[in-house]
Amino acid sequence: VHFPDTERAEWLNKTVKQMWPFICQFVEKLFRETIEPAVRGANNHLSTFSFTKIDIGHQPLRINGVKVYTENVDKRQIILDLQISFVGNCEIDLEIKRYFCRAGVKSIQIHGTMRVILEPLIGDMPLIGALSLFFLRKPVSILSLILFSNSGLSDTIILDIISNYLVLPNRITVPLVSEVQIAQLRFPIPKGVLRIHFIEAQDLEAKDTYLKGIVKGKSDPYGIIRVGNQIFQSKVIKENLNPKWNEVYEALVYEHPGQELEIELFDEDPDKDDFLGSLMIDLIEVEKERLLDEWFTLDEVSKGKLHLKLEWLTLMPTAENLDKVLTSIKADKDQANDGLSSALLILYLDSARNLPSGKKINSNPNPLVLLSVGHKAQESKIRYKTNEPVWEENFTFFVHNPKRQDLEVEVKDEQHQCSLGNFKLPLSQLLESEDLTMHQRFHLSNSGPNSTINMKIALRVLCLEKQARSPDHQHSAQVKRPSLSKDARKSSFKPQVPVSTPPDSNKPVPPSPVTDSDKKADTAEKSQPPNASPQWPTDLSRSSSSLQASNFSYSPSHLSVKEPTPSIASDISLPIATQELRHRLRQLENGTTLGQSPLGQIQLTIRHTMSHLFSKCSSLFFTSLRNLIAFSEEGSDPYVRMYLLPDKRRSGRRKTHVSKKTLNPVFDQIFDFSVSLPEVQRRTLDVAVKNSGGFLSKDKGLLGKLLIPLASEELAKGWTQWYDLTEDGTRPHGAS
């Protein structure tokens, strides 16, 4: 295959071969000083992970082609894409002392495109200020892992953590001159934000069959959307060849030359999901057009097409268009902290000084920083045994309305689970700052007299700049044909699917907010009969999407179960589930007047206690319910799911058992959240009552929701109260 813009560079391979022993020394240092701490911090079970031997082997990495970008690049930088292949017989031994687990890697294969950026170009030797290396997307990797003991250590986890550490937005930066601003090079401001309206598909292939293939069925389609290292998964639409998702995701774009929007559709099955088609769109085309609303033909399948609406949002350092943006996303009237984003908050966490000792006098804490905006929270890495920690980490938050949202920062001692200080910054202060940026030391409250934290915080307004077009202008986005085989791409892209479905597999995921352009599709969806209502799995507890786009995002293959990403329409209210509940209530009403609590009530006993045994603070909740609505003639199979917002990670979820065929279940279960009293008073309890249904049952869905802010002085004493369940949980009322 000939790529006209990619050149061979055999001289570079000869140079790499000569340098290989020294490259191996650098790689060993990278594994021990960078990747090993990253693996330890990724999971509590990996806290004793270490490499005991690292030998990369004598076979050097090979560069198959080099592409130099000459268009759409800054004149002060040089961008190269290196197509690399590494097939090495290496010896890498690792162990997890905590579980007496040892393993060894006997061979590694890596194939991918590595981007090299030389910037800034300067008028003095060595002419280049710094060198940055990273992968645009996770490379195709094959790793032969030998387990020396019976353990659950997964080569997928190790591979993904290692590869993701070098995948955008993470990068290796090597300064060549001292004057270069390394923090800016490591964590550049994104080039833009891509808003993806994942609307609908038509005429998909039917993959489900019955009676050993004699009877042809339909498909249960869902989508995987990928921009660089940010991965989103849509909800599953059951038994539908023309599914309507109406979901919205927002992704950061750091390097648009050579970066694509990648989408794959699958049919969900109990064992192995079937492929329904793929699509790749060049982001340069989206940036040029600013707005694309088109049907795209799916690749690698005989039929099927996908409807997408793509918006390229420019990051503006002024607030002059903020009111217009807030109006366009309807954030000027609502009071929610979630929804379409009007701005992006970029935060560089540098260091802290003079932190207090924590619980033990004259002992240094293990500080970490918890950052939150609305219901979204991120944590820094832990710095051990120091009251002068240096983090040098970057964080990004999508902001719904900066005029009334705050950035909350808390420094915590990981060892003793106590607060070392905190402060709150109204984002409205950034709107009054020059270039919407603040770079200073912030004084910590509830801390030492001279305790400060050094941060650079920038706000960028997200604007959709419309291009001036002639009346006869027509354009179709450039669709790239996949350069990898379907099997090769799925091996590194498609989530792993377990054989069994988890008990909480009926949690709906919010769709996108309905805009004017989406009303037609939404109307069509509402006209579907009730038995066409989709059932879909639980929401993804990341960032992740990031966003959900955090510094370190896992691919879905990390998850023990396949879960969709919450649409950014809302983190806590579920519009589709709300519509289904309202439809069910109308059926129940049928000309009669429903009571004051039509969805029933839930009783909670909420209090905060101190666990002296583990020196941890805990919040306990007890639940029982009454007068729930019936999902069938036999009643309902209710259970309760809880989150302590903004933490929506899977580890932060609490769930009762399922109570069969009852409208008045009593659970008598204790839910323990390990958080301090000051912290829990800044949280919101998110409670959802759901109907489980049986295997393959369509009687799954939401029975009611409840949101309780825990900012109460009575939390230490506790209280017991009945609360009315509502469709979206935003209007909880105490009944007694």
TrEMBL record:
User: What segment(s) does the record annotate as region Disordered?
Assistant: 468-566
Query: Which residue intervals define the domain SMP-LTD in the entry?
Result: 5-177
Q: Which residues form the C2 domain?
A: 176-296, 321-446, 598-723
Q: Which CDD domains match?
A: C2A_C2C_Synaptotagmin_like, C2B_Synaptotagmin-like, C2C_KIAA1228
Cellular localisation: Cell membrane; Endoplasmic reticulum membrane
Organism's domain of life?
Eukaryota
**What are the recorded Gene Ontology BP terms?**
endocytosis; endoplasmic reticulum-plasma membrane tethering; lipid transport
Q: Which InterPro entries match?
A: C2_dom, C2_domain_sf, C2C_KIAA1228, Ext_Synaptotagmin_C2A, Ext_Synaptotagmin_C2B, Extended_Synaptotagmin, SMP_LBD, Synaptotagmin_SMP
**Which keywords has UniProt assigned to this entry?**
Calcium, Cell membrane, Endocytosis, Endoplasmic reticulum, Lipid transport, Lipid-binding, Membrane, Metal-binding, Repeat, Transmembrane, Transmembrane helix, Transport
Q: Which SMART domains match?
A: C2
SUPFAM superfamilies per record: C2 domain (Calcium/lipid-binding domain, CaLB)
Query: Which residues fall in a compositionally biased region of kind Low complexity?
Result: 541-555
Query: What is the membrane topology here?
Result: Peripheral membrane protein; Multi-pass membrane protein
Q: Where is the composition biased (Polar residues)?
A: 526-540
Say if the entry is tagged with keyword tRNA processing.
no
Any keyword Transmembrane helix? yes
A single Gene Ontology MF term assigned here is: phosphatidylethanolamine binding
Biased amino acid composition, Basic and acidic residues: 516-525
User: What does the sequence similarity comment in the record state about its family?
Assistant: Belongs to the extended synaptotagmin family.
Q: What is this protein called?
A: Extended synaptotagmin-2
Organism, per UniProt? Opisthocomus hoazin (Hoatzin)
